[in-house]
TrEMBL record:
InterPro entries: HAD-like_sf (IPR036412), HAD-SF_hydro_IIB (IPR006379), HAD_sf (IPR023214), OTSB-like (IPR044651), Trehalose_PPase (IPR003337)
Catalytic activity: alpha,alpha-trehalose 6-phosphate + H2O = alpha,alpha-trehalose + phosphate
Role according to the record: Removes the phosphate from trehalose 6-phosphate to produce free trehalose. Trehalose accumulation in plant may improve abiotic stress tolerance.
Names of the cofactor(s): a divalent metal cation
PANTHER family in the cross-refs: TREHALOSE 6-PHOSPHATE PHOSPHATASE, TREHALOSE-PHOSPHATE PHOSPHATASE A
EC number: 3.1.3.12
Keyword field: Hydrolase, Stress response
Keyword Hydrolase: yes
Organism: Rubroshorea leprosula
Metabolic or biological pathway: Glycan biosynthesis; trehalose biosynthesis
GO molecular function: trehalose-phosphatase activity
The protein's name in its UniProt record: Trehalose 6-phosphate phosphatase
Length: 369
């Protein structure tokens, strides 16, 4: 039956879809099902497009332009109001250290947007030497881990310190510091580091390596015509960047990713700051990595341990959630804009993160006197 030529058929009351859906009553259930599928599709598309649009608002700068003064004052007021819910970790430093008295602090630091500023080219997200020195110093007093969506090799190269734990690929690739291997166990593989020393790696998604490689190649191929799109191989996950893509082409980027991953039901797509991330569907994230690392360092199930996790991105929320739900430690969200979070405190930007790290060292060294 030619559905379009059936003029007496009821027309379903959806302006966007009605021209597709006139039908005879006996076909109504099928057509309704089709309509629901279409609506699901439209809703899903709207939600990932909205997520792409909200994925990283520009950093807020107070403008000198008088015509914008009111707007910027409004933003200041909104930020101050937000800070009542997420107080500054710097202004609340005494509260933090009072609580930390007699406890062992363990530090977990995200990389992009936390230790290094967000920049247009992901290959150039370098941290400053001053930040490096601050991280090095703080790691002398507290066990410190870098937890990043980047590949472990890349984030190790950026940070360049050997005294830290590193969790790359959103925690799917973990290594301990020099002289302190992570414990042996399921999902641990033996490897050698750059100096040829034996190390234990924790890699719960190692079976996905060939699949991720394949998906990376397909994504490079299918986004190659989109100006500004960049695909980054993070070993156990892939990032598709759209920061430098015209807004009109964002939907095309999203569609490319969906077209590729629809063939891989064991992969999922998540959002970061102007980036789509494709990762294995396994039950593992930065929160699980935080728990694993605490166990590995020998600090889980101890009442005298205070984990502090500092991060700026959506994926860091999994770690904030672990701390919030376990009612232990502090999540600190790095953000210059108000946003909902499971963190307890806030810091405005990497500069404030550095001040916070330095303050921890000063507190620790002066309280030891
Ligand atoms: O967990 P993270 O360490 O925060 O890593 C998350 C993603 O960070 C990087 O992308 C982000 O930073 C880039 C450099 O500033 C920026 O250009 C990009 O728009 C941001 O999304 C990294 O390149 C991704 O692979 C990570 O997944």
């Amino acid at each position: 039956m030619d559905l379009k030529s059936n003029h007496s058929a009821p027309v379903l009351a959806d302006p966007g879809l009605s021209n597709l859906l006139p039908c005879s009553p006996d076909l109504l259930p099928t057509v309704l099902r089709r309509k629901n599928l279409l609506l699901d599709d439209i809703r899903a598309r709207r939600s990932w497009l909205d997520a792409m649009k909200c994925s990283s608002p520009p950093p807020y700068k107070k403008t000198k332009d008088i015509s914008n003064e009111l707007a910027s004052d409004d933003k200041d007021a909104a930020y101050r109001k937000w800070m009542l819910k997420y107080p500054s970790a710097l202004l609340s430093f005494e509260q933090i250290t009072n609580y930390a008295k007699g406890k062992r602090i363990a530090l977990f630091l995200d990389y992009d947007g936390t230790l290094s500023p967000i920049v247009e080219n992901p290959d150039c997200a370098f941290m400053s030497n001053e930040m490096r020195a601050a991280v090095q110093k703080v790691a002398m007093y507290f066990p410190t881990a870098i937890v990043s969506g980047r590949s472990r090799d890349k984030v190790c190269e950026f940070v360049g310190l050997t005294e830290l734990y590193y969790a790359g690929s959103h925690g799917m690739d973990i290594v301990g510091p020099v002289r302190q291997s992570i414990s042996d166990g399921p999902n641990c593989v033996k490897s050698t580091d750059k100096q040829g020393k034996d190390v234990n790696l924790f890699q719960p998604a190692s079976e996905f390596l060939p699949m991720i490689e394949e998906v990376f190649n397909s994504l490079v191929e299918c986004t190659k015509e989109i100006k500004g799109a960049k695909v980054e191989n993070n070993k156990f996950c892939v990032s598709v960047h759209f920061r430098n893509v015209d807004v009109e082409s964002w939907e095309t980027v999203g569609q490319c990713v969906l077209d590729v991953i629809k063939n891989y039901p064991r992969l999922r797509m998540t959002h970061g700051r102007k980036v789509l991330e494709i990762r294995p569907i396994i039950n593992w994230d930065k929160g699980k990595a935080l728990t694993f690392l605490l166990e590995s360092i020998g600090l889980s199930d101890c009442d005298d341990v205070l984990p502090i996790y500092v991060g700026d991105d959506q994926t860091d929320e999994d770690a904030f959630k672990v701390l919030q739900e376990g009612n232990r430690g502090y999540g600190i969200l790095v953000s210059s804009l108000p946003k909902e979070s499971k963190a307890f405190f806030s810091l405005k930007d990497p500069q404030e993160v550095m001040e916070f790290l330095k303050s921890l060292v000063t507190w620790k060294t002066s309280s030891a006197l």
